[in-house]
Amino acid sequence: MEYNSEREKLKIPAYGRNVQKMIDFTASITNRELRNKMAEVIVRIMSQINPNIDESGDYLHTLWDHMIIISDFKLDVDNPYPAPSQDQLAQKPKKIPYSEDKIKYRHYGKNIDGIVQAAIDFPEGPEKEALIKTIANHMKKLYLTWNRESVSDVLIRKHLRDISHGKLELPEEVTLTSTSDILTRNKPKRKSHPPRRGSNGKRKNYGQKNF
Q1: Is 0.70 topped by the overall pTM?
Q2: Is 203 in a helix, a strand, or coil?
Q3: Integer CA distances (angstroms), 38 to 23, 49, 60, 81, 182, in order
Q4: What are the residues facing 197 on neighbouring strands?
Q5: 8 A C-beta contact, residue 120 and residue 164
Q6: Domain range annotation of the chain
Q7: 151: buried, middle or exposed (CB in 10 Å: 19+, 13-18, 0-12)?
Q8: Tens digits of per-residue pLDDT, 11-40?
Q9: What are the Cα distances from residue 95, in Å, to 90, 164, 205?
Q10: Three-class secondary structure of residue 197 per DSSP
């Protein structure tokens, strides 16, 4: 009996041991033309075993790469794609650098900076004043999404001034949407269920007595 612990480790387990054996056998064939034909057959078999690869952009390229990797880079065939190298496989993925942009008020998110900048560049006039009020109301809504307690218009006005570096000012006389209204809108709506009906099709009245 052959135990799994005694077998050769699978290069890509998703394809199974039989595919690995077929690839190893193909790599040992001396006739290049026959090797190429066997490689094409194996690629078709791999596509049937792992159909999820079809979702990738160039799935055939991926399949050929996987076949070369499974062969431990020993399969010499006329590959229709540039074959991967062992050096490429050994390379560690590059680290994604953290964003250096500092967000002063994280509960407003990153997009608010772009919105505020667009408002700063907007021509002066009634439309800009309406835009500033809209932004302030949006900031109040975002604030209450993460902080359920009440927030004053004075605080939103100060935060808007800070984010815009003093270039946007919400007039003192402007009143924003009330906290209670925003919290009511933020609440998830409950699904209403249709009234239950009896076998005769009439609506059932639970808790009511008919005299």
Answers
A1: no
A2: strand
A3: 9, 16, 16, 17, 66
A4: 203
A5: yes
A6: 8-88, 106-185
A7: middle
A8: 899 889 999 999 999 999 999 999 999 999
A9: 15, 32, 64
A10: strand
